[in-house]
Design a protein that fits this description.
Number of domains: 1
Shape: globular
Structural class: alpha/beta
Largest sheet: 6 strands, mixed
Order of helices and strands: EHHEHEHEHEEHH
Radius of gyration: 15 Å
Number of helices: 7
CATH topology: Molybdenum Cofactor Biosythetic Enzyme, Chain A
CATH architecture: 3-Layer(aba) Sandwich
Strand content: 15-25%
Distance between the termini: 28 Å
């Protein structure tokens, strides 16, 4: 499997601070999916830069973005994602907001979306490190399952005990 982790941040793209979200998201994914090929980039909050990264990694099974999901005029990640995708997956965005809201009421202000283009699933995560890690852990069961569904392959049914979702340990608490 292949994944792109795309950090959307004006200041990190200019080198004003180190991106911590991308490396931490990668660590969680590689832990759960040994052998996962991961590309990681930082781009500014510009639609053209985000779209170019999507196009260049259209062969990835998953594209996970972090940042640019809020309400400021520069937060365009959800808009670019929705425009780029052929079909939206509202259940993913709803789940991430719902679970994140349990940690902070500010999650209700997230505009993150999820969708599909070709055989690639694209998911927007929040820009905070804590929120991005929580959401990455929530995505783990979907990362193995979703690409198989897109390719029309056999896929296992969900077994709650396997992933331990709902346990504090599985969510990193």
């Amino acid at each position: 499997m292949k994944a792109l982790i795309l950090t959307v941040s004006e200041r990190a793209s200019r080198g004003e601070y180190e991106d911590l979200r991308g490396p931490h998201i990668e660590k969680v994914l590689v832990h759960h999916f040994p052998g996962l090929q991961v590309a990681r980039f930082v781009v500014p909050d510009e639609g053209q830069s985000i779209r170019k990264a999507f196009e260049e990694h259209a062969d990835a099974d998953f594209i996970i973005t972090t940042g640019g999901t809020g309400m400021s005029p520069r937060d365009v990640t959800p808009d670019v994602t929705a425009e780029f995708c052929e079909r939206l997956l509202p259940g993913i965005a709803e789940m991430l907001r719902f679970e994140s809201y349990k940690q902070t009421p500010y999650a209700a202000l997230s505009r993150g979306v999820a969708g599909v283009r070709g055989n690639t699933i694209i998911v927007n995560l929040p820009g905070s490190l804590k929120g991005a890690l929580l959401c990455t852990r929530l995505l783990v069961p979907l990362i193995g399952h979703g690409p198989k569904m897109l390719r029309g392959e056999e896929h296992e049914s969900y077994e709650p005990g396997i992933w331990g979702l709902g346990s504090r340990e599985a969510l990193g608490h």
